[in-house]
UniProtKB/TrEMBL annotation, chain A:
Protein name: Cytochrome bc1 complex cytochrome c subunit
Keyword Magnesium part of the UniProt annotation: no
UniProt binding sites for heme c 1: C60, C63, H64
Enzyme class: translocase
Compartments, as annotated in UniProt: Cell membrane
Transmembrane segments: 242-261
Cited PROSITE patterns: CYTC, PROKAR_LIPOPROTEIN
Annotated keywords: Cell membrane, Electron transport, Heme, Iron, Membrane, Metal-binding, Repeat, Respiratory chain, Translocase, Transmembrane, Transmembrane helix, Transport
A GO MF term: heme binding
PANTHER family (UniProt xref): CBB3-TYPE CYTOCHROME C OXIDASE SUBUNIT FIXP, CYTOCHROME BC1 COMPLEX CYTOCHROME C SUBUNIT
Reactions accelerated catalytically: a quinol + 2 Fe(III)-[cytochrome c](out) = a quinone + 2 Fe(II)-[cytochrome c](out) + 2 H(+)(out)
Record's GO cellular component terms: plasma membrane
Classification via InterPro entries: bc1_cytC-su, Cyt_c-like_dom, Cyt_c-like_dom_sf, Cytochrome_c_Oxidase_Subunit
Automatic annotation (TrEMBL), chain B:
UniProt-recorded name of the protein: Cytochrome bc1 complex cytochrome b subunit
Cofactor(s) required, per the database record: heme
One GO cellular component term: plasma membrane
PROSITE patterns on file: CYTB_NTER
Domain Cytochrome b/b6 N-terminal region profile: 19-245
């Protein structure tokens, strides 16, 4: 300590103190900086919520109510979560064109940024499932065979063996799952859109969801190999029967007419 | 005959002759061949429908034999280790596993499986159309009633052979079908449960049904069918083939080409054409992709679970029937399933018994070898079209979900359509068809009396425009007027020979009424008489 106090009149003492003061300030800044950054994120989040609210008032409020509380034309969105918004808007189902038995998939007119803003607004109304990360829904390394078994147990009764879709009551239907984005499949299982039951992680684990996505990717996508030729829509015996009648028997009848027309002429004697 | 040819003065007879001689000496085929080789068959494309059935049946047998070499009819549980990735590690029955093995790991296995299945669909469709050809042309009339019944039995047995075969792979789709059948069996009052336990050797699905269905599918039913096919063909030979009316064709002759060489060549060629068409389809188009459906497990089910088309009408009956259930003395009667189960055979029997009803109504006991044109038998044609309409309505019911999704309809609306159309559509079809037939008869009459419209417009000196009608040739006139027209049956005298009022049996009244509806005034257009024809064509420039 003595050494230090002896040099307190040193010409460079002021510089050292200054450096120390700067280091302290810097250190303190460094300590507080994350807090500041969090503050900034919250600001951008609230900005997203504000933007989302604007988009919501234009596209959604007429049916779901100005505060997402729901009306006679649309259900409440409190607590549906960001995943539901990302699914419904991302697949073009929402905003709906018209009320009906079921809202069909159509072209999505929102950018992903706008969808995220809408999702942020809806998520702010009440806690719900968040948008899954790619790591959650990517089918990499999942068990296709187990996915198939899970699909047949949980999904096939509405979506058909390989997800070609099927009818429900009164004009409702389970849509075909050809080439649906893995993220959307995951979100649909998570949130249970429209007539579909939901399969939260407590019912079906994240891993199982991945297995199902991997199965669909294997049997119902562009890359699916179809052993044995055309699959006739993968709809089973009805299309097979139609094909058998029209092209099978049809071709044979045409051949029969051709053969019968080529007959030996009776010799006139 | 044999001794004279071999001891020919010119030395040894040609090899072929010697073989034929050897065979004749032991089998007596000479007289058989002599009688049949020159047998005449008439020519018409529709007469080849039966051939399509015969050949597809042969194709089914050939491919089926190949499949039995690899198929294991067992329900033991095994783990799949074959080359189809999305099922690896899954537990399944040996039946499913071996079908997967046939499809992916046996050389040509999938192609043979698909030929077998496509040929089965075509076989049944061919039989259906063949049966309708026979129906609409009246080829079932005496002496061919028995052969009609044989053909009908072949169709029904074909349905069940198809159903048992479709169930063998033990996949999720066919397993659902077997479950459906079990449900129908269970719905039978009193004995349902016993029957089901008897069929499955215990609780469904048990461990027996694949082995049992296998025996039925490869041995029992095809054996009976083969016998019936032979009997059917023998009767065709024995009765000789029917022919359409035409100049030189009578009830007592057959005009056409001899079996050898013309029909042998044609039929042989046609066999390969049928095989070719079916093989091309099987090579290009999937059928029953069991790998996509997965192995059967009673706790799983898929939407769009339908049987092959020939069983589709039973599916339609069940789907359209309201789910009625009544409680009777502590027992549940599942009418929603039991009533369709009872209607199922009635649908088939309805068409099978028609020939006998018609012969009772007409009282016609003569032999008929000349075919009717469908228009000249309006009531029969109407009944046939009504039956087909009925059948198609039930098929629509069986595919109600696919009609709903693909035409953007409500499945409930489709079902209600089927329920109403089940009763209404056949009636409408009957009336409309009969009117069309009568219209066509009028047209024929018009053509005979006034000739063919030539399309040439002539202006007469006084300014009138007329279209020139060309008279028909003698051949055409004959063909259009060759059919016979019946008179309605009269109820006998109301009083007997003593003047006492006779009791007329109800059946006789019914018969007279039906007969009136077949042949009474307004139910057929009288064909032109010779006098009418002479009068009109006696050349006053009339058209």
């Amino acid at each position: 300590m003595k050494k230090l106090s002896a040099r307190r009149r040193h010409p460079l003492a002021a510089v050292v103190v200054l450096l120390l003061a700067l280091a302290c300030t810097g250190g303190l800044y460094a300590v507080f900086a994350p807090a500041d950054k969090a503050q900034a994120e919250e600001t951008s989040q609230s900005l997203a919520i504000d933007e989302g609210k604007k988009l919501y008032s234009v596209g959604c409020a007429s049916c779901h109510g100005t505060g997402g509380q729901g009306t006679s034309d649309g259900p409440s969105l409190v607590g549906v979560g960001a995943a539901a918004v990302d699914f419904q808007v991302g697949t073009g189902r929402m905003p709906a064109q018209q009320p009906g038995a079921q809202v069909p998939k159509k072209k999505n007119i929102y950018t992903q940024a706008e969808i995220d803003q809408l999702a942020a607004y809806i998520a702010s109304l009440g806690a719900g499932p968040a948008v899954p990360t790619e790591e959650q829904y990517s089918p990499e390394g999942a068990n296709i065979a187990r996915g198939g078994e899970l699909f047949r147990t949980n999904c096939a009764q509405c979506h058909n063996f390989t997800g070609k879709g099927g009818a429900l009551t009164h004009g409702k239907y389970a849509p075909a799952l050809d080439d649906v984005d893995p993220k959307h499949i995951y979100q649909a299982m998570l949130t249970g859109p429209q007539n579909m039951p939901s399969f939260p992680d407590t019912t079906m684990s994240e891993e199982n969801k991945k297995d199902i996505i991997a199965y669909l990717d294997a049997v119902n996508s562009d890359e699916t190999v179809e052993p044995g030729g055309l699959n006739l829509g993968g709809l089973g015996p009805v299309t097979e029967g139609l094909f058998g009648w029209i092209f099978g028997l049809g071709a044979l009848v045409a051949v029969a007419i051709w053969v019968a027309a080529r007959t030996a002429k009776a010799k006139k004697s | 005959m044999s001794t004279t040819t071999t001891k020919d003065a010119r030395g040894k007879a040609p090899a072929g002759e010697r073989v034929a001689d050897w065979a004749d000496g032991r089998l007596g085929i000479y007289s058989l061949a002599k009688a049949n080789m020159r047998k005449i068959f008439p020519d018409h494309p529709s007469f080849m429908l039966g051939e399509i059935c015969l050949y597809s049946f042969i194709i089914i047998i050939l491919t089926g034999v190949y499949l039995t070499l690899f198929f294991h009819p067992s329900m033991n549980e095994v783990e799949y280790t074959g080359s189809y990735v999305p099922l690896q590690g899954q537990l399944m029955s040996e039946a499913f596993n071996s079908t997967m093995h046939i499809s992916f790991d046996v050389r040509g296995g999938l192609l043979i499986r698909q030929i077998h299945h496509w040929a089965a669909l075509v076989f049944l469709a061919g039989m259906f159309v063949h049966m309708m050809r026979v129906f609409f042309t009246g080829a079932f009339r005496k002496p061919r009633e028995i052969n009609w019944v044989f053909g009908f039995l072949l169709f029904v047995l074909g349905m069940f052979t198809g159903f048992t075969g479709y169930s063998l792979p033990d996949d999720l789709l066919s397993g659902t079908g077997v479950r459906f059948m079990e449900g129908a069996v269970l719905s039978v009052p009193i004995v349902g449960t016993y029957l089901s336990f008897f069929l499955f050797g215990g609780e469904f699905p048990g461990g027996d049904f694949v082995a049992r269905f296998f025996a039925v599918h490869v041995l029992l039913l095809p054996g009976i069918m083969l016998g019936l096919v032979v009997a059917h063909l023998i009767l065709v030979f024995y009765h000789k083939h029917t022919q359409f009316a035409g100049p030189g064709r009578t009830n007592n002759n057959v005009v056409g080409m001899p079996l050898l060489p013309v029909y042998m060549a044609k039929a042989g060629g046609f066999f390969f054409l049928v095989f070719g068409v079916i093989a091309v389809i099987a090579a290009l188009v999937q059928i029953n992709p069991i790998w996509a459906m997965g192995p059967y497990r009673p706790d799983q089910v898929s939407t769009g679970a339908q049987p092959d088309w020939y069983m589709g009408f039973s599916e339609g009956l069940i789907r359209a029937m309201p789910g009625w259930e009544i409680d009777f003395a502590g027992h549940t009667l599942v009418l929603g399933v039991f009533i369709p189960l009872m209607i199922f055979p009635l649908v088939l029997v309805a068409i099978a018994v028609y020939p006998f009803i018609e012969s009772w109504v007409t009282g016609d006991k003569r032999e008929h070898h000349i075919l009717d044109r469908p228009r000249n038998a309006p009531t029969r044609t109407g009944v046939g079209v009504a039956w087909i309409t009925w059948y198609v309505v039930m098929l629509i019911g069986g595919g109600n979900d696919l009609f709903a999704t693909h035409f953007h309809l409500s499945i409930n609306a489709v079902t209600w359509f089927v329920r109403i159309a089940f009763f209404v559509a056949p009636v409408i079809a009957f009336i409309v068809t009969k009117r069309i037939c009568l219209g066509l008869q009028r047209r024929d009459r018009d053509k005979v009396l006034h000739g063919r419209e030539s399309g040439i417009i002539k202006r007469l000196p006084h300014g009138e425009f007329i279209e020139i009608h060309e008279p028909l040739s003698q051949e055409q006139l004959h063909t259009l007027t060759a059919h016979e027209q019946y008179e309605p049956v009269e109820i006998g005298p109301k009083v007997d020979e003593y003047g006492v009022e006779r009791k007329i049996p109800a059946s006789e009244k019914l018969r007279a009424k039906l007969s009136e509806n077949y042949y009474g005034e307004g139910h057929q257009i009288p064909k032109p008489t010779v006098d009418e024809f002479k009068e009109i064509t006696s050349g006053h420039g009339h058209h």
